[in-house]
Model the fold of this input.
Amino acid sequence: MMNFRHFSNVAVRLLLVAGTVALAACGGNKAPETAPNVQPDQFLFQRANDAVKRQRWADARKYFQQIVDNYPQSALRPDAKLGVGDTYLSEGGEANLVLAENEFKEFITFYPTNTRVDYSQYKLAMTHYKRMRAPERDQTETSAAVREFEVFFDRYPNSMLMPEVRQNWRESRSRLSEASYKVGLYYYRARWYVGAIDRFKEVLKDDPGYPERDAVYYYLAESLLKTDKKAEALPYYDRLVKEFERSEFLVDARKRLETLTTE
Done:
């Protein structure tokens, strides 16, 4: 028969084992269990990237943040910092985009010579890009996006990201131009031609590559013509005809040119 003392020792051991298992299951703040030869920061980074692939942004952010907070000497810390910003950016929503903006700004401040600082500047611009509003609404975020894209152009002219950045800059810059154009068109329709002229000229001065500038040329020329400035109007009709093979304004512009040059 097993004596009582031996039975008690066995019971205590079983309780200790059970307690250890329970603690392991809870996790807590202890270092994560890793596969052999895998460092804890590497393990967390792998878990974060797996969560990113599944678009589980909050989970990915948690793992990235653990690296940032607990492994200051890790070579993965800069990428984890970017990962935190990326998960906020991907998740979206006004609050998350503000948090993403802060993460990318901090990265640029703390890692100005990092090989991915150009990426951080690009994503900083994208936090504003994703908050842009329709042309008829406030353009504060659009202006901020354009400004941050142009910082990218100035600082990282040889970046591999340049084609993508330039494409998004063009969309942002066009949004600003469209907003000004629509104000000018409103003035034109209200027959306040002086205000319309100022707005249309502003678009051409600030954004000479605006893709929809055929409309700007036409209504600027029309506004000048209606204020008895024929000599100033002619070049804009001419530019419209020469720069655009297709435009809804081509027929009318050609007619204007023919009439004005034969008077």
